[in-house]
Design a protein that fits this description.
Elements (H helix, E strand, L loop, with lengths): L12 H4 L2 H24 L18 E6 L10 H4 L14 H5 L9 E6 L5 E4 H5 L4 E9 L4 E11 H8 L7 E6 L20 E5 H4 L5 E6 L2 E2 L9 E3 L12 E7 L6 H5 L23 E4 L13 E2 L7 H4 L13
Parallel strand pairs: 1-4, 2-11, 5-12
Antiparallel strand pairs: 2-3, 4-5, 5-8, 6-7, 6-11, 8-9, 8-10, 12-13
The structure holds ligand MTE and molybdenum atom (MO).
Length: 329
């Protein structure tokens, strides 16, 4: 068996936490004095702001769901934050880390609209604060056949969906990335992708406990290149479903047109579930290259087998009962 099943409490922290996290935690203890100071300015008395001061760590993060295989070591912070896909900042893997510096993820609002009982525009803190932050260590499999293991910090998407009370007619949820060409160099060209970047889920997929709205990784707020201040994470799907820097969430009756499907429907679908049995028209999806910190983005290490639903079959396969899993969709 590749996958071990353990309750969170059974997992010793040394099994899942690389040394860098311990170092970061030590920095957090030092930084928390600063956090307490900045809260006085940022939030009403007695109410903590969600975001720690720059470089600080989130104050209260509980350990959430995790299920890792024998060889799933968290990918080092350095790789997670310098090897990225975020075309708004350029198409090269190193472009986002290089170009996302001027982007301002604060202040931030998210507009919720469409078929729900409580549409409106909410500030980042008001959106996140009512919910407990969880650490979730997930595999992430890009459709380009590389993968990472990332310790996210976030809240279950289901909790947000419930708060806005989708109406009976709502069948899908649609997410939009911000459009801000002055700060996003890739958006100054309409030829890269049609902006804004859009993604969507069926509402029952959005309610699955694995679906996460991430606000951080390795205990600290997301860096711009990873989708600050909030992005979607659906670990059983290819990485492109994980829309970054979300400014709009809509409840819809019809299936949203997600960006990559719109760009090239013969190569990318709406569901985009990780499936080693269905190759991309231009490359195999049976195996993947894991970025584990071994250098050269994992190209020197043996490729590993890609798992059905990225190893989360038990949690999500029921969502697709009766659907054909033999083609891209
Ligand atoms: N807005 C936006 N979201 C995006 C992308 C993008 O180009 N723009 N790239 C996607 C792809 S292809 C992947 S693999 C993941 C990468 O997330 P990471 O850079 O945090 O690892 O983000 C996804 N979300
Ligand atoms: Mo991707």
């Amino acid at each position: 068996m590749l996958i071990r099943h353990k309750k969170p409490s059974d997992v010793a922290s040394h099994e899942i936490t690389p040394e860098s996290v311990y170092l970061d935690r030590r920095r957090f203890i030092q930084a928390s004095g600063l956090i307490a100071g900045s809260m006085i300015l940022g939030a009403p008395a007695g109410q903590a702001a969600v975001m720690p001061a720059k470089g600080g760590q989130f104050a209260d993060v509980t350990k959430g769901y995790r299920k890792l295989g024998e060889n799933d070591t968290p990918t080092p912070f350095e790789s997670v934050t310098t090897y990225n896909n975020y075309y708004e900042f350029g198409t090269g893997k190193e472009d986002p880390a290089e170009n996302a510096g001027p982007f301002k993820p604060q202040p931030w609002t998210v507009t919720v609209d469409g078929l729900c009982a409580h549409p409106g525009t909410v500030g980042f803190d008001d959106l996140i604060k009512p919910h407990a932050l969880e650490e979730r260590i997930y595999r992430m499999r890009c459709v380009e056949a590389w993968s990472m293991v990332i310790p996210w910090v976030g809240i279950p998407l289901a909790e947000i969906v419930k708060r806005f009370e989708p109406l009976g007619a709502a069948k899908y949820i649609r997410f939009e990335t911000i459009v801000r060409p002055a700060e996003m160099v890739g958006q100054r060209s309409a030829h890269i992708l049609p902006w804004p970047y859009v993604e969507g889920l069926r509402l029952d997929e959005a309610m699955n406990p694995l679906a996460l709205i991430a606000v951080g990784l390795y205990g600290q707020p997301l860096l711009n290149q990873n989708g600050a201040p909030l992005r979607l994470v659906t670990p059983w799907k290819y990485g492109f479903k994980g829309v970054k820097s979300i400014v709009r969430i809509s409840f819809t009756e019809v299936e949203p047109k997600n960006t990559w499907r719109e760009m090239n429907a013969s190569e990318y679908g709406f569901y985009a579930n990780v499936n080693p049995k269905v190759d991309h028209p231009r490359w195999t999806q049976a195996t993947e290259r894991r970025l584990g910190g071994g250098g050269l983005a994992g190209i020197l290490e043996p490729r590993r087998r890609t798992l059905m639903f990225n190893g989360y079959e038990e949690e999500v396969a029921h969502l697709y009962d009766g659907m054909s899993l033999t083609k891209y969709y």
